[in-house]
Design a protein that fits this description.
With 327 residues, this protein is mainly beta. The protein has two helices and 25 strands. Strand 22 and strand 23 form a beta hairpin.
């Protein structure tokens, strides 16, 4: 099994609705007021020593022989914690301060898939690594796909069959992500499809089955390049559902209304929303009507206010169907 490049886990990533977005780490305040304990365990609930525990604001610790590590925070709100260990699929948790202050949270790290992938997606998410296990890649992607630092910023629903395609990066060095809501089952579970295309990598397609309300991931199928579709083992607990913002909070974030914005799929009349304090830096979004997910452009800004990454809507459509014989 190839060793996971630890540099990868120091990078913040985001995928908001239709695209992966990049975040940066900021310096913590001197006073760290809120603490939480994370205990890393295997599939048999045995403690894992030496697991790396890292938060979305850049803190990092390592578990001891009891599988425990403590992180301390200086700010209120939601923080995403990633726990990784060699030859284990990682776990991600969303915690809220001060609600979770003093609590102990369990991160269950299952066995990985015995294969490796090398993926370089520029613009949206920068995976600078030699190689990493497939089991480590999937939970990271799907945790990020439906959340931004633990928050659900989806501004309009997808209907079954609807899809969007987003592009990031410069011409000749771009990454494209296709996201589709395939089907809602009678029990409320949902099938979604995501494909990632990068100028320097094989195409990657995944189809995931979420529980009702997208609270957990139940199944996952994938295909790399021209290979065969295959089932990927899914362990309990490595996807944490995002927390919904109130309508009042969303509307209070509106900076401008009725502005014209041009993206690859066309010109839209949009409202500009901006949030700060969602981890490091801030996020700026262009909200438009009649688009699945409700967004046509997304920018992340570093703590200095400079644009760190941009994703733009490239295409939308209907009639998406499974390509991996998932159902």
């Amino acid at each position: 099994m190839n060793r996971i490049n630890r540099r990868y886990w120091r990078m913040a990533a985001f995928v908001l609705l239709t695209g992966m977005l990049s975040t940066s780490c900021s310096t913590l305040m001197q006073a760290k007021l809120f603490s939480i304990t994370i205990v890393a365990v295997d599939e048999n609930d045995q403690p894992i020593r030496g697991a790396i525990v890292e938060s979305s604001n850049g803190q990092q610790s390592t578990t001891g022989s009891d599988g425990k590590a403590t992180l301390k925070f200086s700010s209120i709100g939601i923080h995403v914690i990633t726990v990784i260990a060699q030859d284990r699929a990682p776990a991600t948790l969303s915690i809220t301060m001060p609600v979770d202050m003093g609590k102990t949270k369990t991160a269950r790290l299952g066995k990985t898939v015995d294969m490796s992938v090398s993926l370089n997606i520029t613009g949206n998410i920068n995976l600078s690594m030699l190689s990493m296990t497939a089991g480590a890649l999937y939970p990271f992607i799907f945790q990020a796909l439906f959340t931004y630092n633990g928050y659900n910023l989806e501004l309009a629903p997808f209907e079954p069959g609807e899809w969007t395609e987003w592009v990031s990066g410069d011409e000749g060095d771009q990454s494209v992500m296709h996201k589709a809501f395939l089907k809602r089952l009678t029990n409320g579970q949902e099938w979604w499809q995501v494909s990632l295309t990068d100028d320097d990598s094989e195409d990657l397609m995944m189809e995931v089955l979420f529980s009702k309300g997208r609270q957990s991931v139940r199944r996952l199928r994938q295909r790399m390049g021209d290979g065969e579709a295959e089932e990927v083992p899914v362990s309990e607990g490595w996807y944490t559902a995002p927390i919904d913002l109130t309508p009042e909070s969303l509307e209070a974030s509106v900076q401008e209304k009725g502005v014209s914005v041009k993206v690859p799929t066309g010109t839209y009349t949009a409202d500009i929303l901006e949030f700060g304090s969602l981890g490091s830096g801030s996020i700026r979004m262009w909200r438009a009507k009649g688009v699945p997910g409700g967004l046509v452009k997304i920018e992340t800004l570093d703590p200095n206010g400079d644009v760190a990454a941009t994703s733009e809507l490239k295409a939308t459509g209907k009639g998406a169907q499974t390509e991996l014989d998932s159902f």
